[in-house]
Amino acid sequence: MKTEKDKMLAGEPYDPRDPRLCAERRRARLLFKALNDSRDDEEAQRARLIAELIPDAGPGIWIEPPFYCDYGSNIRLGARVYFNFNCVILDVAPVRIGSGVLFGPVVQVYTATHPLDAAQRRAGVESGRAISIGDDVWVGGGAIICPGVDIGAGSVIGAGSVVTGDIPAGVLAVGNPCRVIREL
Predict the structure, then answer these.
(1) What is the pLDDT averaged over residues 32-55?
(2) Structural domains of the chain, count
(3) Is the pTM of this model over 0.85?
(4) What share of the chain is helix, strand, coil (3-state, %, to 5)?
(5) Is residue 114 among the annotated active site residues?
(6) Which segments constitute the Maltose/galactoside acetyltransferase domain (predicted)?
């Protein structure tokens, strides 16, 4: 029998009030609160907190506090990923981020989604769709990456863009909804 976490990670409807999921979110909140409260001169403490919050992270990760996520454990980071201030990752489904990726301030990565049917929303179920971001992507400040999106390696997402569909590799894409402007 599948647990609520199994369902969540598979992109199936699940109950976010499940005690195990609540405990895992609480753990993440305590860790990112400690990270967000840390000082700039506490680099070793920040590195330890990031490693505990996001255990599947390559070397050279840099997160400018504040940073927020649902679980952290569903995020996989390549090497040398940089998050500017106020980034949010709702990782109810897997989030895979390649190496050398740069996030501007206030970037939001949302795997979480809710039913369109009001009765289902009232019942409290939700689901998620995985997000994948290739190597060497730059996501401009204030961009929103919606559930289920794949962004190809080497692409640039313009500031303030709302990415609702897949973006191929090696392009500049901007706008709401985000659209390819040209190849790079």
Answers:
(1) 97
(2) 1
(3) yes
(4) 25, 30, 50
(5) yes
(6) 5-59
